[in-house]
Structure formats: structure tokens, C-alpha cells
Write a structure and sequence with these properties.
Length: about 800
């Protein structure tokens, strides 16, 4: 540690006692225009002779002038050491008048001036003439109250200062103490040590301003006592650091030797530790993860590379390093571009795309906000999965799909503990590792098909994943440290909400995606399906062409779905068979017409006119919602002679649907007179209600009004109004309640050729919320009671098979 002031060169230090009268010349200092010699971090006290480094050209000229003319200069310290051209305002007020004894040029070309300080002065005004390069000031001489050598307190004070100074200078500048041995004047000694000992600049100036040398000495003793303690502590810390460094060097040496031995024994396996160590230093781990990594890496170093535990440990560390700690993908902030991406990738789905754009706008406006968990619900083939991919592309983020269908083990979500053989992280962490980003779009596909048993419930593990309040500290059992999932945009897909547990459902925002109209399917086939099929079959777009009529014929006669998945398969089948025919006949097929379909696809599988008529009593058309979209549902009723005690229900009906039949029959019985039915008929005939397609399970309350209408039609032997379908739940009081899946049911009705639909008055808002294009060609009848339905549906015309009951 160097304790000399910044302008003081080492090794040239002279101490003199107070000058005698013989030393003084007849030249007097000019107190009205004293030339200024500025110093950096050097405060010179009266009576001290000290070598000063001269770096500035102006200072060197002044020093050489003072040497040659034996003139006086004023030595003042700068307030800011960094100032290269200080003015009077940049100097402390107190300084000393001094003479330059000698100016020396050193071997390296620098200069040093030996300066002898005499009296103390204080600046009163700037007296620099205009154009004069030398700064001059008007000063006031100030005399100090000297210390008397015979004063006992002074003697003790000087001895204490000398002892502390000796301890400070003994190791770094021992020549300082040699030079002060011959000095007997206590004032000179105190001023010398005030100049040389390590004291803060402001405190040193405060000491210079003091007139009493004794008080200056007392302040000096307090300062150097503290400095001595700090120096002792610093030396002790340095010694400890040196000992620690020696121990560390020994450890490094042994580690290097061990690395060489490992490399010799196991080849390149020995480099794994170093590679992982370097990679770990570059990874932005959380504090918890870094602590875990360092601990596991040290464990790897001690393992034999040939042991089975080594590969397990290395695999764990590789996974820990591969996770995107702190890596994020910048958010695409162009909302117009996001809108263009969604429009390009998906036709229709206007409300869904609008809701997604709203969320993207929120994320752009508040990138650090918590994103909601979106759940896209709809039948298969309507574009839920591809919509998730488009959202990622619109946001400019990485995309990964996590399939949850059939998952029945919680460890698939949270990972296996490393104590098990073949343990791996859960699907969420695995997806993040693959995405290489901490803020990707993760699609949780088929969340409604997550299984559960008495041993494990994966949906409970998903609660932590999808809860914004918890997923910032998601704990995977394999990596065994918390990982932040709060920046991930989760999008779930499902065909139905009925199988999703309510706590999980509460954490998600539901967006319904209904099926497509035939017109929409034609457009989707034209824009998306056919170009993809042409590419997969290696055809150019000049291959066999399918016009809109042909595509519509495929939709009507060979598919029965809400989405377009089956449509894509059927179109692929058509073009594949057309390609084979080209190769067999050697003739190019330019167009496939509707009449050609039967030759490629055999007889039509479906008939758009699925409506089976209403000429028979008890036959009524209902509307049902299924996981694959809406369907029309036929209810058939008949009576047979009996005691009226038996109600037979067939068609693979669930409990809720059976209850609807019981309620419908009870309502008809209690209102028989109003309906024109002889009450005694219920005691003479047994009722049988059947719902065709018995292999398909059916359940739900929405067939209530359909069953009531069927029962009334059977007992009155009158037919139901043509091309009328209905849906609604009933109560014992005859009130018609609203049901769900209205859009899907409307699409099913249009596909089947239905023209009128009866449904609850409370469903009006659901119908009005549907785009006009879906409602076109349909007449809606909103009802409040079963009587409203019956007055609309039951005609006065007898059924074709009418008989007298």
C-alpha cells in the first residue's frame, strides 16, 4: 500500500528543521500576486520539504522560474484531482508559500521539484492578469501557534504519533522514518506526519486550517490511530487470503492431477465434468437451481465413469442444463401481422379469432401480465390444435404440443423421482426443454381425456400447472427444483367439458368452437385442404381439379361431421384413386365431377335428406349434441295392449334421458283431458319409447319436449308437423328449460334438411348470438311450456298408421 500523496515520488524525501535566519534571503513573497502551484491530493504543511511530481507544462515553467529566481510560489491543493486546468475556484482556500530548491529531470523524462514549505496563507482573491498563463492570487499570511518542546503533553503526543507512524511505514517506506530521526522541532514533526500519513483529503485540509499545532497533532493522532487499525486489519485479511489462496492452489493442483488420471483411465469421459462446469457457468440458473447443479456436479466428479450411477447422474445434469433458464422469445408486437396470420391459417371462426386477438393485444400492452389459460372446446376436426399453432406464430413464440389423451399417471405431469430406474421429467418440463424458451405457447391437447384411477389423478397435478398463483414455482419431481411457468401461454383443447373436473375448469377460460357450414367447408377445402393434399401426393395444382359442386357433393354424401378431418381423408381418397386411374389408362384426368364420385368412392354413405318424414304416429325429430358435433335424433313411441303399468325404454339411454321420459309421460297423463286423450287409455296400453341407433349411448335432458310430443302423437294417433325439430328440457309443471349446444344442433338441422326448430324462450339469446349465415333458411319457435310445443307440433292430420285406441 502506498501512503505517499499522489504528487510525491518515492525515494526522494528530505526533512529539515525550521530554517534559520541565515537560510532566509532578502527576497520577500508577493502576497498580493502570489504565483499558484496547484497539486493533486497533496496538502503541504508549513516547514515541510517534499519532492513533488511536476506533470503540467505550466507547473514545470513555474517551478523552473522559482528555482532560478529564488522566488516564492503558493502551493494549493485542487478540490477535484481530475481537473487538468484548475482555476482559483477549483482550489482549497488554505495553502502554503514555498520555495523551489531544485528541479530534477528523471531518466524517464518526467520532472520532480523539491519544494520547501514555509508559512501558511489563505486565498482572498483571484489576481491573475488577463492573458497571463500563470495563475496568481492575493493571499493573507496566517501564523500558527507553535508547539513547545518542553511541554510534556506535546512530548507524549509526538512520541505516540512517531510510534504509530513507524508501524505504518515500517514495511512500505522505511526511509521516511530514517529522515525524521534528526528532526527535533515538534511543530515540524507534526506538520511532516500530517503531510505524509494516510489521512482523507478533506480532513487534511481541516487540519491545515487549524492555527494550533497542538490541536493539529491531537487530530492527527486520532486519525492515524484509526488508520493504523485499518492497516492492521487489512494486513491480517491479506494474510488470510494468501493462506486461502495457497490452499486453493493445492486443491486446483490435485484436481488437475485427478483429471489427468481420469482421462488416462477413461478417455474422453474425464472431460464431461469440465464441459458441464463451463456450460453451467454460462447458464442463467435461479439461485436454488445453481446450488442444486453445483452439488450434483460435484457428485458426478466423484463417480467412476464406468459405474451405472454415472450415466444416470450425467443424464440428470444434461437435462438441467438443457432447460431454458432465463431464455425468452421476444413478443411480436404487430397486431396487424397477428391478425393476418390467423386469417391466413383459418377460415371462419370469427368470434374465436377476435377473442384471441384481444388476448394478444393485452399481452402486447402488458408483457409482464398473467395470461389466462384458454381452453378451446369443440368437436374433432374444427381446427383446435392448428389454432394453437397459429397463435404461437402470431405471437412470434416457440410452440410445443403436449398430448394428454390417455394420461392416467400423475408422474407424466410432475415427473418421476430419480430414485426410480428410467426416471424422466414430466411432459411439461420436457416440452419446455424442447421449446428452448421459457415463454412458449404450450398446447395441452385433449385435456378432457385425462384418465384417473384410485392410485393417481393427473388432473390434480394440472391444477398447479394451470393456476397463475402457483405455476411460478412449479416443482417437477425429476429436476427437483422449482421452475417458473408463469410466462408460458397455455392453450388447452377438449371435445367436451363434461369430463373435466370442476376445479380444473374454473382455472380456464372456455372458448367454444362450433362446426362449419357446408359453404365454409367448401372454402376451407379450397384454401387449405386441397393444396396440402396435392403436395402430399406429389401432384401439381394442375392435377385433377375438384370444383365447388364436387366438394359439396363429397361433404353431403360421404361425410357427416362438424369439422373437416373426414373431408380431408375423403378428398385424399378421391385424388389418390384419380391418380391410379391416370396411370392405368394413360390418360390425364383434368376434372373430377360430382357424377364421378360414385366410381371413386362407391355408393354414398350419407343422405343429406336424413329427415325420415312424419307420416307415422309417435315419430318426432329431436336435436342432440355429441362430442363430434350436433346430430338429429329420432324418437319413436308405440303402444300395446296391457295394464298400463309398464314403460319400456330402449336405445341405450342414460339415466337422465330415462328420467326425461318418465317426466314426459307423467305430464301427458296429468293433462290428458286438455290434450284430448282418454285417461283410461293409460290403464289399457303399455307405452314403449325407442331411440334408434341403439349401439350409440345417449343421455341428457334435451330430448324432454321431443319425448312429450312423441307420447301425445302416439295416444292421439296424429302426425307431427313436417320438417320440425325440437330440443328442450321439461319439468313436471310443463315448463321448457334451456339447453346447450345450440349452434351445433342448428348445423345438424341444416344438414338434415330441417326448416323449423322449437326450443326454449331462454335459448333466444343463444340463437341471436349465432352468425346470420348459420341461421339462414331456418325458422325458430321459442316456447315457454310443453303446451306451446304441442300446439305447434301436433297437427290435425291423422297418422298414416292411425288406429283407434
Amino acid at each position: 500500500m502506498n501512503f505517499f500523496p499522489a504528487d510525491t515520488p518515492k525515494g526522494i524525501f528530505t526533512i529539515k528543521n525550521a530554517p534559520t535566519e541565515e537560510d532566509k534571503t532578502t527576497i520577500k513573497p508577493d502576497y498580493d500576486a502570489l504565483p499558484v502551484f496547484p497539486t493533486r491530493n497533496l496538502v503541504l504543511f508549513p516547514g515541510v520539504a517534499l519532492p513533488v511530481t511536476v506533470a503540467r507544462k505550466q507547473s514545470l515553467d513555474l517551478a523552473q522560474w522559482a528555482e532560478s529566481s529564488e522566488g516564492y510560489i503558493g502551493v494549493f491543493c485542487q478540490i477535484d484531482p481530475a481537473e487538468d486546468s484548475p482555476g482559483v475556484k477549483d482550489l482549497f482556500n488554505y495553502g502554503v508559500i514555498a520555495r523551489v530548491i531544485k528541479v530534477l529531470e528523471l531518466p524517464d523524462g518526467s520532472h520532480t521539484a523539491l519544494v520547501q514549505a514555509e508559512g501558511k496563507v489563505k486565498i482572498e482573491a483571484d489576481f491573475t492578469p488577463i492573458g497571463d498563463p500563470c495563475m496568481k492570487v492575493k493571499v493573507k499570511p496566517i501564523s500558527d501557534i507553535g508547539a513547545k518542546a518542553e511541554d510534556t503533553e506535546i512530548q507524549v503526543l509526538v512520541k505516540s504519533i512517531r510510534d504509530i507512524a513507524e508501524g505504518i511505514f515500517s514495511q512500505n517506506q522505511p526511509d521516511v522514518m530514517v529522515n525524521v530521526e534528526s528532526v527535533t522541532n515538534p511543530s515540524i514533526l507534526i506538520n511532516t506526519f500530517s503531510t505524509m500519513l494516510p489521512i482523507e483529503l478533506e480532513k487534511r485540509m481541516e487540519m491545515l486550517a487549524m492555527r494550533s499545532v497542538k490541536k493539529r497533532g491531537e487530530t492527527l493522532l486520532a486519525q492515524v490511530t484509526r488508520s493504523s487499525e485499518m492497516i492492521s486489519l487489512s494486513r491480517e485479511l491479506q494474510q488470510r487470503a494468501k493462506e486461502s489462496l495457497d490452499e486453493r492452489q493445492r486443491s486446483v493442483f490435485l484436481e488437475q492431477q485427478m483429471a489427468e488420471i481420469t482421462k488416462e483411465l477413461y478417455g474422453d469421459e474425464g472431460d464431461e465434468h469440465e464441459r458441464m462446469k463451463r456450460q453451467g457457468e454460462e447458464t442463467d440458473f435461479t439461485p436454488e437451481a445453481r446450488k442444486q447443479f453445483d452439488k450434483e456436479l460435484e457428485k458426478l466428479r466423484r463417480l467412476n465413469p464406468q459405474s451405472p450411477e454415472y450415466s444416470v447422474q450425467r443424464n440428470y445434469l444434461d437435462i438441467l442444463l438443457d432447460l431454458p433458464w432465463g431464455k425468452t422469445t421476444p413478443l411480436e408486437k404487430d397486431i396487424k401481422k397477428a391478425e393476418d396470420v390467423l386469417e391466413h391459417d383459418h377460415f371462419g371462426l370469427d368470434k374465436v379469432k377476435e377473442r384471441i386477438l384481444e388476448q394478444i393485444a393485452v399481452m402486447i400492452n402488458n408483457p409482464n401480465g398473467k395470461a389466462p389459460i384458454i381452453c378451446l372446446v369443440g368437436p374433432p376436426g374444427v381446427g383446435k390444435t392448428s389454432l394453437g399453432r397459429s397463435i404461437a406464430r402470431a405471437l412470434g413464440r416457440a410452440y410445443e404440443r403436449v398430448s394428454l389423451g390417455g394420461v392416467n399417471d400423475e408422474a407424466e405431469i410432475r415427473g418421476h423421482r430419480r430414485t426410480y430406474i428410467g426416471a424422466m421429467p414430466g411432459r411439461i418440463i420436457a416440452a419446455l426443454r424442447k421449446a428452448e424458451s421459457s415463454n412458449p405457447v404450450l398446447l395441452l391437447d385433449e385435456i378432457d381425456k385425462v384418465g384417473r384411477d384410485y392410485k393417481s389423478d393427473p388432473s390434480s397435478a394440472l391444477l398447479e400447472v394451470l393456476d397463475p398463483e402457483q405455476n411460478a414455482r412449479f416443482h417437477d419431481n425429476y429436476i427437483d427444483v422449482d421452475y417458473d411457468l408463469s410466462h408460458v401461454l397455455f392453450i388447452a383443447t377438449a371435445n367436451t367439458l363434461t369430463t373435466i373436473p370442476q376445479p380444473l375448469l374454473d382455472r380456464m377460460e372456455i372458448i367454444d368452437i362450433a362446426g362449419y357450414l357446408p359453404e365454409e367447408k367448401v372454402e376451407i377445402a379450397r384454401r387449405h385442404l386441397l393444396p396440402r393434399i396435392y403436395q402430399e401426393l406429389g401432384m401439381t395444382e394442375n392435377g385433377p381439379q375438384l370444383d365447388d359442386d364436387t366438394i359439396e357433393a363429397v361433404i353431403d354424401k360421404y361425410t357427416a361431421e362438424s369439422g373437416v378431418r373426414q373431408l380431408e381423408k375423403t378428398l385424399t381418397n378421391v385424388l389418390r384413386k384419380a391418380l391410379l386411374k391416370e396411370m392405368r389408362q394413360g390418360e390425364k384426368i383434368t376434372h373430377v365431377h360430382p357424377d364421378d364420385l360414385q366410381g371413386f368412392l362407391r355408393a354414398p354413405l350419407y343422405n343429406r335428406e336424413r329427415y325420415e318424414g312424419n307420416e307415422f304416429a309417435g315419430v318426432v325429430t329431436g336435436l342432440a349434441w355429441t362430442a363430434v358435433g350436433g346430430e338429429i335424433l329420432f324418437i319413436e313411441s308405440s303402444v300395446s295392449a296391457g295394464k298400463g303399468e309398464k314403460l319400456t325404454l330402449t336405445g341405450n339411454l342414460g339415466d337422465v334421458m330415462k328420467e326425461s321420459a318418465v317426466i314426459a309421460l307423467q305430464y301427458v297423463k296429468s293433462h290428458a283431458n286438455e290434450l284430448g286423450i282418454d285417461p283410461e287409455l293409460f290403464d289399457k296400453y303399455n307405452l314403449h319409447i325407442h331411440v334408434p341407433e341403439g349401439a350409440i349411448p345417449k343421455d341428457g335432458p334435451s330430448a324432454g319436449i321431443t319425448m312429450a310430443t312423441s307420447i301425445v302423437s302416439t295416444f292421439t294417433q296424429r302426425r307431427v308437423k313436417e320438417r320440425l325439430a325440437m330440443t328442450g328440457e321439461i319439468t313436471l309443471r310443463g315448463k321448457v328449460l334451456p339447453v346447450g349446444g345450440i349452434k351445433e344442433k342448428i348445423l345438424a338441422a341444416k344438414r338434415a334438411g330441417i326448416t323449423e326448430i322449437a326450443l326454449s324462450q331462454d335459448n333466444r339469446k343463444d340463437v341471436e348470438d349465432i352468425n346470420e349465415i348459420y341461421r339462414r333458411g331456418l325458422t325458430f319457435h321459442y316456447v315457454n311450456t310443453v303446451m306451446d310445443v304441442l300446439s305447434l307440433a301436433i297437427t290435425d292430420s291423422p297418422a298414416a298408421d292411425a288406429r283407434t285406441l
